[in-house]
Fold tRNA-dihydrouridine synthase.
Amino acid sequence: MTDKHIIEIIKKDKLVAAPLAGVTTPPFRKIVRKFFDGLIYTEMVSAEGLKRKVKATLDYIKIQPIDRPIFIQVFGSNPDTIYEAIKICEDLASPEGYDLNAGCPVKKVIKANAGSYLLKDLNNLTNIIKNMRKATDKPISVKTRLGWDYNSLVYKEILNMCENEGVDILTIHARTKTEMFSGDIHFDALSELATLKKNVTLIGNGNVVDKTSFDKMIETGVDAIMIGRAYMKAPWIFQAIKHNLDIHNFLTLKQKINILMELLTFEKSFRRNYIDFIRKYSVWFLKGYKGSTELRKKIYKINTEQEIVKTLEEFLEQNS
């Protein structure tokens, strides 16, 4: 796949699957690939952990053929460490490209002067991007926000930075760091960026949960849209949006439970605490059905695979 080809895929699909911490693991990506063959990202990976070759961190960059096309998302604050991290990824994983997390608002990440903290340190952000560009000839992207708060918006400066430093893709979550994941999306900022951009592929992000919200964001002029939290609860959302169908009813309840059974198998071979994740996915996927509130209470008291399977079978029968 050529560098240009990945950009063509993004512009053709108009959809991208976001990096989601704790979610976009190899097992979950296998499920997503049933409904989406476009660009997906790994969960965010510590550049420092990669540099020190921590086994748990290296596990994050394990890529299977089914994952492709895929970008590895890194986070960190030291430009030299970011450079080394990408070189390590090139040797061990060779993804289609790399993304810098410059938007995560979680305290732990910000305390490390990474993620959204970089919105307050554009000089360091510039140096990080320069080193990303030096480390690889593959496409690089930056995922960020509009600014730290509404009194310190920096999205136009970041666009200029990306244009000048050879960034291929800029993804903007159209909120500030202080707005976190609540409040209205600032569509005017996305429209402004779409007008100003020259060579960068612009991806919009934030609160796209169906075809209606997808269309509203596309109208701003962005090249594509990154689906985030909505797809961790409904990985079939990509097909539902493409065909303008209701997300909840796109699959039957039986199909959703079959997917949970597949995910259980994938998770079981991936990590020891797989039951914890199947509980979470069961609650997410089955929300809105009769008895889903009771299911949530019950399933979090379950500790065995057999009980999980039995509970899901009973839930299906209850809704038949």
About this structure: The radius of gyration is 20 Å.
